[in-house]
Amino acid sequence: KRGNKKLPPGPIPLPLIGNLHNIIGDQPHKSLARLAQIYGPMMSLRMGQITTVVISSSAVAKQVLQKQDLAFSSRTIPDAIRAHNHHQFSVVFLPVASRWRSLRKILNSNLFSSNKLDATQHLRSQKMQDLIGYCRKCSQTGESVNIGQAAFETMINLLSNAIFSKDVVDPYANSGKEFKDVVWNVLEESGKPNFADFFPLLKRIDPQGIRRRIGKHFDKLLHQIIKGLVDERLEQRRKSPNGSRIDFLQVMLNTSEEDPQAIDRNHIQHLCLDLFVAGTDTTSSTLEWAMVEVMRKPYIMNKAKSELADVIGKCTIIEEADIGRLPYLQCIVKETLRMHPPVPFLIRKVDQDVEACGYFVPKDSQVLVHVWSIGHDPATWEDPLTFKPERFWDLKIDVRGHDFELIPFGAGRRVCPGLNLAIAKLCTMLGSLLNSFDWKAEGDIAAQDLDVEEKFGITLARLRPLLAVPIPL
Ligand code: HEM
């Protein structure tokens, strides 16, 4: 309590563990949504020793992410992320200050601006052809495609082409497995619950703790694989200083030479790691959910296929320029992001005492904006548990962080910088898969019976990978 302002309401914490018993389990997003129905859209809990404020309505989200954005713009740093001091270099975890600003500016101007995205469209189109080629090969042998994994590999190569102008994974030859596996290991370790995050005192007993576990994967990705790619480029630049290649690595190295304050060698490597970690699993698990939902409902599958056939023509790969003419496809992608946001909570922190919505939020509180709950709020969404792309026909709610009823990419100054790329890729991957093949579930399962069980980790993925057999049209 401060003055006449109190902490938001919440369940009574137990000694030591606080409210961990209220949320522990494999579905913490659902446990927190249930608690919010009792305690309201702004509630407080103790997660071990950490005061946590959970925001579960669009109105309160708008207050903290738009009106008081700066006060809520830091992030809690999980202990794992301190391995190799990643938090001191990472655009995802740096506080909103000059270093973070210059990294965001480099990303926005040189990788994600609409001009840059237009100019690099052909590279991504090639990766779509690789994905469809891979599915075609599976269709000839009758093999199933692990949709999430195929999309994960596609995203890795798509990013590696934008950054390094090369593929780092070859799904046909199963080479480049190391790169893919290391990115996956980093993701998996970062998603594991870690008691040191709830009980900072534990860090005194074992200061390295989880960092040892994740550290070796960070080390491999940062100091061996990414460093190797950067070294290789520096060598090429030495040999031919007037080389004409302009990819994101080249831009970062040029910027670093002109203004070492803006970005240095360490930041370049950590930024590459950030992009592979933030941009791959988020996009591939959303695509997997979209395929599951479409396969479960034949009327959605047929409607999407007939839109694609009418507008683009059957068996054609979808280009980014086509997306504007495919409104139903866009509705499917938005509905997937509403039902299955890969990032169920925005994780923020306040660095000072703050007052918001009449409550007191003490310095260093963790703040969770409950994206999943907001997207399932029955006050906004009729029949929220049903997958219904049609709801977006006449609805002017978008996913880009301006409409607080649906914020799968976050909002405010920390909004996801890769959102336009992610939306474009979700539409082109889904559209191309649907337009090139019919799909059936592997084994004896009827597509309509595919389950929607979730696995809570670094992303909210499907519990079992979707294995689907492509049938040539
Ligand atoms: C479906 C795909 C994606 C989803 C749902 C998603 C979602 C998010 C969310 C919720 C945040 C936190 C925003 C906040 O706190 O307000 C975020 C941050 C971020 N995302 Fe994405 N993202 C996706 C794809 C991508 C891609 C493709 C990239 C880049 C290649 C990317 C790069 C980043 C980065 C660098 C941040 C940290 C931004 C910062 O803290 O300043 N994301 N994303």
UniProtKB/TrEMBL annotation:
Superkingdom of the source species: Eukaryota
Keyword Zinc tagged: no
Known cofactor(s): heme
PROSITE patterns tied to this protein: CYTOCHROME_P450
InterPro entries: Cyt_P450, Cyt_P450_CS, Cyt_P450_E_grp-I, Cyt_P450_sf
Subcellular location as annotated: Membrane
GO cellular component, one term: membrane
Record flagged with keyword Magnesium: no
Binding annotation for heme: 416
Gene3D superfamilies, sorted: Cytochrome P450
Gene Ontology molecular function terms on file: heme binding; iron ion binding; monooxygenase activity; oxidoreductase activity, acting on paired donors, with incorporation or reduction of molecular oxygen
Keywords, in A-Z order: Heme, Iron, Membrane, Metal-binding, Monooxygenase, Oxidoreductase, Signal, Transmembrane, Transmembrane helix
CDD domains registered for this protein in UniProt: CYP76-like
Pfam families in alphabetical order: p450
SUPFAM superfamilies the UniProt entry points to: Cytochrome P450
PANTHER family cross-referenced by the UniProt entry: CYTOCHROME P450, FAMILY 76, SUBFAMILY C, POLYPEPTIDE 5-RELATED, GERANIOL 8-HYDROXYLASE-LIKE
Similarity-based family: Belongs to the cytochrome P450 family.
Protein name: Geraniol 10-hydroxylase
Upper lineage: Eukaryota, Viridiplantae, Streptophyta, Embryophyta, Tracheophyta
